[in-house]
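The authors assume throughout that readers already know how a fold can be written as discrete tokens. Each protein is reduced to its one-letter sequence and a matching series of backbone shape codes. I therefore recommend that a typical entry be quoted early in the introduction. For illustration, here is how one protein appears when written out as sequence plus structure tokens:
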Amino acid sequence: MRLRPGRTEIPGTTGRFGPSGRTYVAHSWSLDGARTRFAVWDIRGRRKLFSYETGTDGRGRLGHVSPDDRLVALCPRRGPPEVWRIGERQRRLRAYPAARGACRSDGATIEFTPDSRGLAVMDDTGIRVLDVATGRERLDVARAGLSEIEFSRDGSLVAAVGPDELVVWRTADASAPVLRHPLVSEYATELRLTPGNGELRYLSGLSGRVVRTVRLAGIAGAGWHERRLQGAAFSPDGGKLVTARRSGSRGVFEVRDMRGAPDGRAPKTPPPLPCRVPRGLDPVADFCIPLMAFSPDGRRLAYALPSVLGDEPERVRVWDTGTGRIVRTLDVTPGPGRANPLNSLAYGPGGKLVLSRIPDRETLEVWDVSRGVRVRRLRGAGGDPLALHPGGRLLATGDDQLVGLRRGRVTPRPLAQDGVRSVEFSPDGRYLAAGDDSGRVTLWDGAGRRRLGTLPGTYRGVQTGAAEPATALAFSPDGRTLAVAGHAGTLRLWDTASNQALGGNLPTAGDELLAVSFSPDGGEVYAVGRHTAARAYPADPERARRAVCTRAGGGLSRADWEAYLPGLEYRDTC
């Protein structure tokens, strides 16, 4: 080993290739640990393009070259991260005080975004992307415990390894993940998003000998809509779906037939409704929340856009899904100056429509749609959501009430442990389920008298520090399976007889789920989110087996069977 006079450097270096493959990033350090040298080499020309000597603590390891090979980001001896220009006129462009903590944390990383215009900083608080030119924040993902990040080639997605799951966000809106893939007793590293964002691949295990692939169907492309939905509802048999979103000062509704390919055909559009708010308030805030409910046979849709103006008339339209015409308009105005707007509705058998009003005078109204008249008013009852028993005689409310509609009897009943967020009767009327704000689901008999059990639903446990409300529920046609959907995109199936989960979480896009339903034959479960179109998942064992076999390209070969299941007689699994 040859040492220059007065220097104590180890001639060996560690390094890696730059993102473009045209550069090599090398690090060397002094024997006494006082200095770290960082250099960028041109591979083809075999010449040094950039060199920098930094301080102790191995800060030079944070050096990162931009994909266009023009810039380098690093931590100086003191102060926040810096970006320098590479080349003959090597010079510093700017420092980034907003990312000062990244140079002090051993687990922090700094790298450029694929377009070389953003500086991504990952530390123990999450991920931030700063604009290289201005230093302003372009993206902020608050998430502790991340160990690795990876951007897609087009920069639209960013993936990360969390403590117990893989997480993917959209860089255009990182308010919620678009994918959460659990890691069960598994270590993941070397994330890669394939071109076109169709798949996420990673190395599994410490040895890194197994490559696993997570499909991103429904995340990239047409499955994700930047304009969020304000509401969604399925018909009781799952055959139809209505969605609502705001467009300027109007509420726009669309009805799709779920049989076949719901995204492949043009939706039917009931007449839009005006959204009027007090002067000076933004209509995109929490105003004009749509109310929607299908009749039991799915042939009629009742919908409304309640007003927050005291003198604004409130009306519920009833639209025929077959003819595309309004067949009834119900004038449900309580009178001028009364702060008693509609907040929920339910459509029952025999053309019975139940409306709820809050907050000053909680009231339930029962209307006969065929005649267009109100037949009953119950004060002191109501809430959001509402669920009608298939027989039409019993109503469950979000305010922990059971209401007998024949006699008007209101029975207080704590339907859920932590506030009612969703409520649903099974199609045969045998069960009543109520989901709460913590994600748990309480299962009752159809009369609401006897508690049958409590399902974890979307509950993640106290140690996570985050609750996921159960936003939507749906029973299978035979009542044996309950689908539970959550605010953060969790979708799970539960067996109502045993209160046990049927497999793990279904692979949703991580979007807030607004509505869930089973297909008319019970073979699939549908879910629709704030930004994601309706998606179908196999819900019976045979369909799930076929889906797995198709994805795997067939079952186990005889050789694999002998390797993994020795001693058992071979059989064709697909």
